[in-house]
Amino acid sequence: MKMKKIMKKISVMVLGLTMAAALTACSNATSNKQTDNTVGTENGTGTENNTGTENTADDEVVLYTDTNVVGGWENNQGSVKPEDNEAAQAAFEKATELLVGYEYEVIAYLGSQIVQGTNYAYLCKGTPVVLDAESEYCLLNVYEDLEGNAEITGMEQLLDVGSEDMMGGWSYNQGEAAMEDNEDISSAFDRALEGLVGVSYEPLFFLGSQVVAGSNYAVFCSKAPVVPDAEKSFCIAYIYEDLEGNASLTEVADVDLTAESESTDETDSAGAIGGVQIANPFMEVATLAEAGAVTGFELNVPAAPAEYPDMTIQVMNQSMIEVIFTNKANETEAGQDEGYRIRKASGSEDISGDYNEYANVYTETINGCEVTLKGNDENVSVAVWSVDGYAYSVTAETHPLSHEVMTEVINSVK
User: Which of 342, 283, 289, 290 is nearest to 317 (CA)?
Assistant: First the structure.
């Protein structure tokens, strides 16, 4: 995440108080300049805000910030609730309406940038559309042009989350994000900031935690210097709580509203939109036996068809096996030529990840199971069913299968 990380330093207290005084004394002389302040102190330490200085013709030192430069980002100064920001929410919904396999939920609207159209910044919760998927928090950018067309232009995760087996790594909060729903975290935050002056922090959302000798908490906040007409910005405050319940503010990271994402021309199983690669929750394995060792259950599939001889085996979050039949010889810039994919996971829900609307949706008994079939015309694009505690799906979105071929595939899957 591109943020400015700021450690607390005792010298900042002196600098902040000096600059605040200079700002007050010179308010008339600097009325046309953007101003900001330095964070105050806690127990003799301070946390510096993102400001700079410049010298005027009279050698007066004033503060400036780039938050309101023409064409620059403007932090949302009102309610961050999606329902209170209709234009931003409408742009988000248009940008994500075709996204398949991954869902974004707007937690907060953070700000906008006027260009040839408008860029919007959101705090989002992102979740792969699969069983037992874990959510993550990210900064999401959407661009809406002057004709009202919208697309995702950037996505950046907010915490450095290691593998599930990494001890001491950050873990995203899988519960409710709002601080009022996280009383223990809110209490630790209040204790950590007790006695802090000069800047007002409002804790908004609990993002995640890290188990150390005690716990670290990441809290998404708004902040503003305690001066008249101060504008707020957004940051992540890191709180450490030891085993005795003592809490302290260890770091503040200012949130830059530009989400930096690595663009790609490829599309993975989780999908890509607007040139932004969405985090891929799948792990490729060499054999079905290896996939079974990871998930704890087996999957049997038919032999690869002659027209799609290449088989890719993937595991999702140790809870799903996916087999994709493709023809790599026909690969183009748009990607591999896919025939169909088969999935198996614990449960009974629809695990196909295909939410397209089809003209024909009907149920049929195949191999003793009630199978839901979806397609257009006489072909079948999706088949989903469950039996003996496991959910199955066959998806042939690009090249729909005939009813006869789909039935043969279903009969071979177990």
Answer: 283
Give residue-wise pLDDT tens across range 185-241.
999 999 999 988 889 999 999 999 998 889 999 999 999 999 999 999 999 999 999
Spatial distance between the Cα atoms of 47 and 355, rounded to a whole number of angstroms: 48
CA distance 361 to 352: 14
pTM above 0.85, yes or no: no
| Cα 159–Cα 163–Cα 168 angle in degrees, nearest 5 | 70
Q: What is the C-alpha separation between 284 and 300, in angstroms, rounded?
A: 17
For 363-376, the DSSP string reads EEEETTEEEEEEES
Q: Are 238 and 212 in contact (CB under 8 A)?
A: no
pLDDT band at 335 (very low <50, low <70, confident <90, very high): low
* CB distance 46 to 19 below 8 Å: no
Can you tell me the distance from the alpha carbon of 139 to that of 144, in angstroms, rounded to the nearest whole number? 17
**Type of residue at 261:** S
Assigned token pair, 109: 């609207």
Cα gap 233→253, rounded to integer Å: 11
Q: How far is CA 331 from the centre of its chain?
A: 30
- Between 55 and 323, the more confident residue is 323
> Token digits for 97?
């309406």
pLDDT in tens, 61-93: 333 333 333 358 999 999 999 999 999 999 999
pLDDT for 280 equals 52
**CA 344, CA 393: separation in Å to the nearest integer?**
7
Instruction: Indicate the helix (H) or strand (E) that contains 330.
Output: strand 320-332
Q: Is 252 helix (H, G, I), strand (E, B) or coil?
A: strand
Q: How confident is the model at residue 273 (pLDDT cuts 50, 70, 90)?
A: very low
What is the identity of the amino acid at 371? V
H helices of 235-301, where?
Answer: 288-295
Alpha carbons 35 and 13: distance in angstroms, whole number: 18
Tokens of 171: 């873990």
- Closest residue by Cα to residue 203 from 225, 226, 180, 184: 180
pLDDT, one tens digit per residue, over 13-31 is 333 433 444 444 444 433 3
